[in-house]
Specification:
This protein is an all-alpha fold and 205 residues long. Helix content is 70%, strand content 0%.
């Protein structure tokens, strides 16, 4: 079992951490909830005002789809009182029209949720943490294979740190001597695509 855990960590390090994301913030949960409310109100309003069948169908579909966002992000700590007891997927809840005024709260929540959604975990920090855990687990495995795995992970961690420091030094060089930036870029044009991708990720981090 322990060996399987170590192998899983190795695969994680080799395949990358792009699939990781932060847990939903309160703003994201509230925004998903408000989105569901807006879609529900739109669907009800379309029906009350005898809108075209096409528009009614679209608003009902949007209402149904928006429930998945609430299920994904989770409920906010304090759902709107007018919908107390209702859950995504229910129909005929008699929803009141969403208060678009409310001191612009819905707009502020949407803006904050968007900022929160743009956060991205530092893949290098995640990878370093995974390698640290892998080294610790390799020590528990023990034996020849445990030592080999631990040695491999330590070496990979050192190389990752060295690469990050080199890229940081290169960026500092270009800032201190901007006149040499074009020549510097020219000297790195023959880098392989994987290397260029790693360097780009490091710069972004």
């Amino acid at each position: 079992m322990k060996k399987l855990v170590v192998i899983s960590l190795l695969l994680l390090c080799l395949c990358g951490c792009e699939g990781f994301r932060y847990a939903a913030t309160e703003a994201q949960r509230e925004n998903a909830w408000l989105h569901w409310r807006v879609c529900a109100a739109a669907a009800q309003t379309a029906g009350d005002e005898n809108a075209s069948p096409g528009l009614c169908g679209l608003t009902e579909l949007a209402h149904s789809q928006s429930g998945a966002f609430v299920a994904d992000y989770g409920l906010p700590k304090h759902p709107q009182a007018s919908l107390e007891g209702a859950t995504p997927g229910q129909s005929g809840t008699g929803l009141e029209p969403v208060d678009h005024g409310q001191d612009g709260r819905a707009t502020r929540v949407a803006s904050q949720a968007r900022q929160d959604a743009m956060r991205k975990p530092d893949v290098w920090v995640l990878a370093d943490g995974a390698m640290e855990l892998g080294i610790a687990l390799a020590g528990l495995v023990g034996g020849v294979y445990g030592l080999r795995i631990a040695g491999y992970l330590k070496q990979a961690r050192e190389k990752s740190k060295a690469l990050k420091e080199i890229v940081a030094g290169n960026e500092l060089f270009k800032q201190l001597w901007p006149g040499q930036a074009d020549r510097f870029k020219e000297s790195h044009r023959k880098q392989s695509p994987p290397t260029q991708r790693i360097v780009t990720q490091l710069k972004a981090g």
